Amino acid sequence: MALSFTVKEATFKEADLVGHIVESVKKIFSTMIFIDDIVDEYPLAKPESHFIASISGMVGLGGDFSGMVGIHIPIEFAKEATASMLGMELDELEGEDDIHDAVGEITNMLAGEIKMLFSANNLTVGLSTPSIISGSDYTVEVVSSGAAVVVPFNRNEHRFLATLQIEA
């Protein structure tokens, strides 16, 4: 069954949300990170919440509804994306701060793109400051009775997820 949710008088269908996420992620990676070969692989074969050697960025949504926007990305690709975003070589990155900041900013940009979709439908949406989780082995569980859209992406051997969780 396809996901659909209504807030006030605006109804959003899964296909529309997925399309907006795909377009937004590809635009962000192309224009801000200078990586043009991102491929979406929707739908996700099975739910994923366990990550190995990864970094997750999350931005909360609040206003007419609540929710969360997330990016879950392997640390090696996060390093690549950070270096490209900053115009640096991989070996010029120092520590994890730049990587955490870059993933936070990527997540914030995606949340901003999603906010624009909702705002265009006369919904009030505020964004939280990005939160970052990283590690060699961790699980991200969203406790919610709401709807979720998870879009997998690939770049070469790297697979990452963009997520939207909505509590209407």
UniProtKB/TrEMBL annotation:
<dbReference type="InterPro" id="IPR028976">
    <property type="entry name" value="CheC-like_sf"/>
</dbReference>
<dbReference type="GO" id="GO:0006935">
    <property type="term" value="P:chemotaxis"/>
</dbReference>
<dbReference type="InterPro" id="IPR028051">
    <property type="entry name" value="CheX-like_dom"/>
</dbReference>
<dbReference type="InterPro" id="IPR038756">
    <property type="entry name" value="CheX-like"/>
</dbReference>
<dbReference type="Pfam" id="PF13690">
    <property type="entry name" value="CheX"/>
</dbReference>
<feature type="domain" description="Chemotaxis phosphatase CheX-like">
    <location>
        <begin position="55"/>
        <end position="154"/>
    </location>
</feature>
<protein>
    <submittedName>
        <fullName>Protein phosphoaspartate phosphatase CheX associated with MCPs of class 40H</fullName>
    </submittedName>
</protein>
<keyword id="KW-0145">Chemotaxis</keyword>
